[in-house]
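Q: I'm writing a short explainer about Hormone-sensitive lipase for a general audience and would like to include a description of its predicted shape. Could you first generate the structure from this sequence?
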Amino acid sequence: MDLRTMTQSLVTLAEDNMAYFSSQGPGETARRLSGVFAGIREQALGLEPALGRLLSVAHLFDLDAETPANGYRSLVHTARCCLAHLLHKSRYVASNRRSIFFRTSHNLAELEAYLVALTQLRALAYYAQGLLATNQPGGLFFEGDDGLIAEFLREYVTLHKGCFYGRCLGFQFTPAIRPFLQTISIGLVSFGEHYKRNETGLGVTASSLFTSGRFAIDPELRGAEFERIIQNLDVHFWKSFWNITEIEVLSSLANMTSATVRVSRLLSLPPEAFEMPLTADPKFTVTISPPLAHSGPGPVLVRLISYDLREGQDSEELSNLVKSEGPRSLELRPRPQQAPRAQSLVVHIHGGGFVAQTSKSHEPYLKSWAQELGVPILSIDYSLAPEAPFPRALEECFYAYCWAVKHCALLGSTGERICLAGDSAGGNLCFTVSLRAAAYGVRVPDGIMAAYPATMLQSTASPSRLLSIMDPLLPLSVLTKCVSAYAGGETEDPSNSDQKALGMMGLVRRDTALLFRDLRVGASSWLHSFLDLSGNKSHRNSVPTAEPMRRSVSEAALVQPEGPLGTDSLKSLTLHDLSLKGSSDTSDTPELSLSAETLGPPTPSDINFFVGPDDAPDELSTKDRGCSASAAFPEGFHPRRSSHSTTRMPLCSLPIVKNPFMSPLLASDSMLQSLPPVHIVACALDPMLDDSVMFARRLRGLGKPVTLRVVEDLPHGFLSLAALCQETRQAAEQCVECIRLILAPPAAPRV
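A: Of course. Here's the predicted structure. Afterward I'll give you a sentence or two in plain language.
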């Protein structure tokens, strides 16, 4: 169904339902149902023209005709998903509103939640029109002066987000993913409360567990708490939460469902310099020094995974590098015969926002790769920010990569073909390690497979990054905190010495033990309190009260007076200008201006970044707008603003984020020319999609071999969810296919 037909069908149903409930008397429920359908009609009619304009020009931003993907398309698709859900629900209401089994309260709450989501999506569509009016043809990242980008982000971060984390959680993704996201959201808000009590020294109590139970049964409360957490808790919270999978019990469960391999060994590479031959003339060598940044020389941890035991993998030299991991440190099972060395090797760099996770977190799918590819895999455990900011991780990954190239025989490979593979932050490091290898003159990998990589770490805007407002796995505030930590803007947590002595994983293990210890009493207390509340319900109803103790978020929203702006604001936003200068020919690769200026506090601009629905240009060009930011939206339209004050939103303004070894999209043409063939697997609904599209466009414009595959309806990080459903397995298989292409011997030239 095309967009216009869908909108007209929804409007017709909304008008029919509105008329029906308006005729049902003066009751509160009928009034709210009539009002919600009136709101759906209004927002759908306002949204359709904006989406139509975005869709009419979206093709100008694709990599090519065979790869129709960019942030504008993704935003339109997401809005269509919301419209489709409201259309389905409106049909259901129209067919069942007279039935005695019609669940009025449930349907009302869902309609109200999706109406708020539709309103916020309409605001995003207007923001996207502003990007169209400001950027050069084919450019997806924001172009404009300092005041414009600061104005945009100041407006954007104050938008209400809780509606996307409650009843509407994951509506844009494939249905098989949604139960997982529900579990994650409940776990996140529960862990957030636990983390907060830990900071204040209160520990785990039955009352905290009772509140966690309320998050599970109240989606509005959960959404509001989720929004508070993502906006206000620091990077150390996210490090702790993402590292939960490192706990022995959970990692063991994950490994039980993964492929069984003969070799899984954690190695510690000593910090010793060694020589590598130059590619141009192997008679000359260059010294590869151990990592030195921030903490001085230190060992680099790597994990060797191999489905078969191959020659060299049980050698005494390699065994001397093995680092104990406890009871499951070694999964080496001797065989009567060793398999010969494989011709290829995969060097893997894990994701985790530069701040969390290790090779153990990614071990389940790496074991599957080892089985399917039949080659050894070396996964690098680089040091994490904020304790080890840039360039420590890059130095360690480069050192480990060079060590693997030099010692591939110990790893069970002849090293004829080497693939560098990584996801998210690991994809970023794959590109930068290759750039550094080329700069040193040593062997670059034969190809790179990067899954949903981050190639632009500057605080800037793009249409796909607008999607971070609703992404439960990659919200904007979390992105900025991770980037700030990696850039050195976040210092080490000055918490009490007891917690620091335990270490991050020790703290998580301790807290988990306390959680299980109190689970029984907590569950009992929660059930007892719930039954007491239920038993007293009739008594409470007999006593007249002026206001319920707590209204749902949706209910409170109905009586909230609408205003142009909420009360939340950011004290300052410091940003950099990204200037993408390109011609109107979208096949030309734009040159990137690398300004090293740091910006002070944003100043008011005479240029309006935003355009109304009637102001979208027919041709994409940069235009000055002579009005203020208050004209961002058409008259009478006011999106919901956040009710949570944002105390920590570190929009990174450090000049180092413009370093091409941190933001490879900003690398010069000559640097990018040194990269090997690149295969990118991106997600259509990922806030990082435009990073992949623009990086592929730059490489394509330079004549470099590059492919871009875009999977639909899956979130960022699908590799770690490979065992969850058929869709994630198929997406993970695309990554494996790309690695196979890299490892395949080059075809012999025809005579």
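A: For your explainer, you could say: Confidence is low (pLDDT under 50) at residues 200-210, 492-505, 510-631.
Q: Perfect, that's easy to follow.
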